């Protein structure tokens, strides 16, 4: 699959939103009807497997509910690629919302009631979702919620869609029978929704552990920790019953759970969780881009013990509407970008482009995946990235990575949470097979620190030159990170907080005319390295800045 490819003369693939399991998720365009869609391309090994997917798609397409994402089409392209086409949905994921903190009890009850109703509709069609979690629940600006991602759904009594012996689901939300290889029934989804409800009230799932198996063991043998003291007895009972180890001890069905949640919520007028709360007042803040979320609705079709946040599920599309989004509280940083007027340029003259991620950016970067412009207590604006699919793209005329350049950005690292440690990228320019450069935090393969990397060739596994630092980011702290390429001296250099950390020889340069990517990189033709955290005040120069200029730029 490639950008621009059209499946069955109708669905154009515009950009990769994420990859995982057995396929990739694309932001696409239905060229016949002129509408945005999410396209999931699937890697199937046999015609029999493709036939099973088609049967499941037909069953799911019969589901009609405003709380359940629609499957619009399913087919096989000329090269044998199986694909599903899903709705384009506006809003945020519940996972994104919970990054700002827990919900109130009335908000939680409203969400649980709506999701239980959605599951009841799905179960009535003979489908078990099997992967109910915050990343698969969308919050629309109008307060409604939508259940998405039926990529590993199972028809009751039907054949499994995955190979025998592969545990499918997300460990933090896995029902005991799901973890233990028992029968999968609607009660499995009821348990997962109970985990979601618990997380809504506390900010975290009931069970954690250093490995997926440690989490699964707790689902099988331990009772969940008590909910906070302020939670009502009725809400506690609702969740505890959903989290019963034995399926027979849970709510008899999702409809019963929905009625219980709705009855408890009936006395309050507080609405369900809002994807787009009112704009902050004071200091003349501008409206923030909330955007439309492109649904990466069918995630990994066979996921073996995947971490909670390992698959990107949604995307902010380039056609995003303007609104406001919840501000992410920032930890007090050890250092921070200077608070300046929104229009203040970098202190070093002559940038090819610069951004403060505010309304004054011109041109503004294009937001893709779960990339969001948000207000911040100490800054005019920040670009928040979820570490799953969020990235910003900016075309800078005549910026050629084969020639002298400097790229610099303020970055805040949020940590990996329950996801695996991996290399995550602040800035890059993609080529055909890999990136022309990567400014990143390398946390895998025995390294732990900032790096500025330039491959010597645009090929699948190129040799690379690296300027590295032993400084590893601490979650919540702002860092000023910069990479400098100077072909005159045949050197690349890495700066952290204005100080030179390392310099390396680089002789084999190659160019690319692709846009600058903020928050991700291309490697072996796959986009990845999504940055988990926030960026603020980025600048690019078509020359190699001096050490003195780097110190000055760090004061920006």
Automatic annotation (TrEMBL):
Biased composition annotated in UniProt, kind: Low complexity: 320-343
Name of this protein: non-specific serine/threonine protein kinase
Cross-referenced InterPro entries: ConA-like_dom_sf, Kinase-like_dom_sf, LamG-like, Prot_kinase_dom, Protein_kinase_ATP_BS, Ser/Thr_kinase_AS
Binding positions (ATP): 40
Class of enzymatic activity (EC top level): transferase
SUPFAM superfamilies noted in UniProt: Concanavalin A-like lectins/glucanases, Protein kinase-like (PK-like)
SMART domains (UniProt xref): LamGL, S_TKc
Chain segments carrying region Disordered: 262-283, 309-347
All copies of domain Protein kinase, residue ranges: 11-266
GO molecular function, one term: ATP binding
UniProt cross-references to Gene3D superfamilies, sorted A to Z: 2.60.120.200, Phosphorylase Kinase, domain 1 (3.30.200.20), Transferase(Phosphotransferase) domain 1 (1.10.510.10)
Keyword Nucleotidyltransferase: no
This protein's UniProt keywords: ATP-binding, Disulfide bond, Kinase, Nucleotide-binding, Serine/threonine-protein kinase, Signal, Transferase
EC numbers on record: 2.7.11.1
């Amino acid at each position: 699959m490639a950008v621009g490819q059209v499946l069955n003369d109708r669905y154009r693939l515009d950009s990769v939103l994420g990859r995982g399991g057995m396929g990739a998720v694309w932001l696409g365009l239905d060229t016949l009807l002129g509408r945005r869609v999410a396209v999931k391309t699937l890697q199937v090994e046999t015609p029999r497997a493709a036939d099973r997917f088609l049967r499941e798609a037909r069953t799911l397409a019969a589901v009609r509910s405003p709380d359940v994402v629609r499957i619009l089409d399913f087919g096989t392209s000329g090269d044998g690629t199986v694909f599903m086409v899903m709705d384009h949905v506006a809003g945020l994921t519940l996972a994104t919302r919970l990054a700002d903190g827990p919900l109130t009890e009335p908000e939680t009850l409203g969400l649980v009631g709506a999701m239980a109703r959605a599951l009841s509709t799905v179960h009535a069609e003979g489908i078990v979702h099997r992967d109910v979690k915050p990343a698969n629940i969308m919050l629309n600006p109008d307060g409604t919620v939508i259940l998405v991602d039926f990529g590993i759904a199972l028809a009751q009594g039907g054949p499994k869609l995955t190979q025998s012996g592969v545990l499918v689901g997300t460990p933090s939300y896995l029902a005991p029978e799901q973890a233990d290889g028992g029968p999968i029934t609607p009660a499995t989804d009821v348990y997962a929704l109970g985990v979601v409800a618990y997380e809504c009230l506390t900010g975290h799932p009931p069970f954690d552990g250093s490995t997926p198996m440690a989490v699964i063991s707790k689902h099988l043998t331990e009772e969940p920790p008590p909910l906070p003291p302020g939670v009502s007895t009725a809400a506690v009972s609702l969740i505890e019953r959903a989290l019963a180890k034995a399926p027979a001890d849970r709510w008899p069905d999702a409809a019963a759970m929905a009625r219980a949640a709705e009855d408890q919520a009936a006395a309050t007028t507080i609405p369900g969780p809002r994807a787009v709360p009112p704009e902050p007042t004071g200091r003349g803040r501008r409206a923030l881009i909330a955007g439309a979320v492109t649904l990466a609705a069918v995630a990994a079709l066979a996921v073996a013990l995947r971490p909670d946040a390992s698959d990107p599920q949604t995307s902010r599309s380039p056609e995003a509407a303007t609104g406001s989004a919840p501000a992410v509280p920032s930890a007090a940083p050890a250092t921070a970008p200077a608070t300046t007027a929104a229009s203040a340029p970098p202190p070093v003259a002559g940038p090819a482009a610069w951004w403060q991620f505010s309304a004054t950016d011109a041109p503004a970067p294009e937001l893709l995946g779960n990339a969001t412009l948000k207000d911040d207590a100490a800054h005019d604006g920040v670009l928040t990235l979820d570490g799953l699919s969020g990235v910003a793209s900016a075309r800078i005329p005549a910026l050629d990575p084969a020639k002298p350049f400097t790229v610099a950005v303020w970055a805040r690292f949020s940590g990996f949470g329950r996801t695996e440690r991996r290399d995550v990228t602040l800035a890059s320019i993609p080529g055909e097979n890999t990136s022309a450069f990567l400014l990143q935090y390398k946390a895998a393969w025995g390294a732990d620190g900032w790096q500025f990397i330039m491959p010597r060739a645009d090929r699948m596994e190129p040799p690379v030159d690296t300027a590295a630092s032993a400084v590893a980011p601490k979650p919540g702290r702002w860092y000023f990170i910069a990479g400098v390429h100077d072909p005159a001296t045949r050197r690349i250099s890495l700066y952290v907080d204005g100080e030179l950390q390392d310099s390396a020889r680089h002789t084999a340069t190659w160019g690319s005319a692709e846009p600058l990517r903020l928050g991700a990189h291309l490697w072996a033709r796959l986009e990845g390295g999504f940055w988990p955290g926030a960026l603020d005040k980025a600048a690019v120069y078509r020359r190699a800045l001096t050490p003195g200029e780097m110190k000055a730029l760090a004061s920006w």
